């Protein structure tokens, strides 16, 4: 089972360069960065974790630039969006960004995607809240066409373009894994329909019984004609608890990702060292 970390990079946090190096030195598999382009002062939808938004949501750096900085000083560490909000992004521009980062990192990019929860934020981008799920599916399908075809075309209800050329193509073939984030059952269904993996959150999984939901996901995948082995599961917000990590390993979780505070090295490095010890136990 692979272990990675996620951080909200800000002007006052540890830098992506420093954290990327520290993660690779300790043998971790991946670094993930979330995305919010901005935070509207209005709030039509509540924060899923409850209460007010924490400050790093407002101060978050661009994920692709942060990940490229980390990739440029590492050689093995994978870098991923956790998650990229495709409901707010142009698919042609984003396809090139993904391909470019995959090229610059030597094929180390993991494309975590999500449909978002902040209605005000996505509406500022011109996205209709009620149809965001179909919009994202079409944007993902369009990007796959761009990555895999020399003369790509796509025609849907929300995304449409005639044959076009775009290079570079990604290093990974047919493209970097599209790992769909979100809760069970709806995001799980989206992962099965157009994804290469699923990203649930550990706290939400445990509320309903992580083992049971994972098995339900695999049953759904088989019913849809997908091999569960081709849909690896990445659990975010993994607990700092060896028994729970070993349980994740036993039920076939592919990767766990632990959260880091948006703070400097003095606060972050001890957390990395504790997780490195846990990683040795998991591997042990």
Automatic annotation (TrEMBL):
Q: Which domain of life is it from?
A: Bacteria
Supply the InterPro entries for this chain: F420-G6PD/mer, Lucif-like_OxRdtase_Rv2161c, Luciferase-like_dom, Luciferase-like_sf
Please provide an example of a Pfam family that matches this protein in its UniProt record: Bac_luciferase
One MF annotation (Gene Ontology) recorded for this entry: oxidoreductase activity, acting on paired donors, with incorporation or reduction of molecular oxygen
Residues of the signal sequence? none
According to the UniProt entry, the coiled-coil residues are none
Limits of the Luciferase-like domain = 17-237
Recorded hits in NCBIfam families, A to Z, give: F420_Rv2161c
Q: Please name the PANTHER family in this protein's record.
A: CONSERVED HYPOTHETICAL ALANINE AND PROLINE-RICH PROTEIN, PTHR43244
This protein is called what?
LLM class F420-dependent oxidoreductase
Question: Which organism does this sequence originate in?
Answer: Vineibacter terrae
């Amino acid at each position: 089972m692979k272990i990675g970390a996620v951080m909200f990079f800000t002007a006052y946090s540890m830098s992506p360069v420093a954290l990327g190096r520290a993660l690779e030195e300790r043998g971790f598999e991946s670094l993930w960065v979330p995305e919010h382009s901005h935070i509207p002062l209005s709030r039509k939808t509540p924060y899923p974790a409850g209460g007010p938004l924490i400050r790093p949501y407002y101060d978050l750096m661009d994920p692709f630039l942060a990940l490229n900085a980390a990739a440029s000083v590492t050689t093995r560490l994978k870098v991923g969006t956790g998650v990229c909000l495709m409901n707010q992004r142009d698919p042609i521009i984003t396809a090139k960004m993904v391909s470019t980062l995959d090229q610059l990192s030597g094929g180390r990019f993991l494309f975590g995607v999500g449909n978002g929860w902040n209605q005000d934020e996505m509406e500022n981008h011109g996205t209709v809240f009620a149809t965001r799920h179909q919009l994202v599916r079409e944007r993902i399908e369009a990007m796959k066409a761009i990555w895999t075809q020399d003369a790509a075309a796509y025609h849907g209800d929300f995304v449409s373009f005639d044959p076009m050329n775009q290079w570079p193509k990604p290093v990974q073939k047919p493209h970097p894994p599209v790992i769909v984030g979100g809760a069970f059952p709806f995001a799980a269904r989206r992962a099965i329909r157009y994804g290469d993996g699923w990203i649930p959150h550990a706290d939400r999984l445990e509320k309903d019984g992580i083992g049971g939901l994972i098995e339900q996901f695999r049953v759904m995948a088989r019913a849809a004609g997908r091999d569960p082995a081709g849909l690896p599961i990445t659990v975010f917000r993994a607990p700092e608890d060896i028994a729970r990590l070993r349980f994740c390993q036993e039920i076939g979780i592919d990767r766990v990702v632990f959260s880091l505070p948006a703070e400097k090295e003095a606060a972050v490095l001890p957390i990395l060292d504790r997780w490195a010890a846990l990683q040795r136990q998991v591997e042990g």
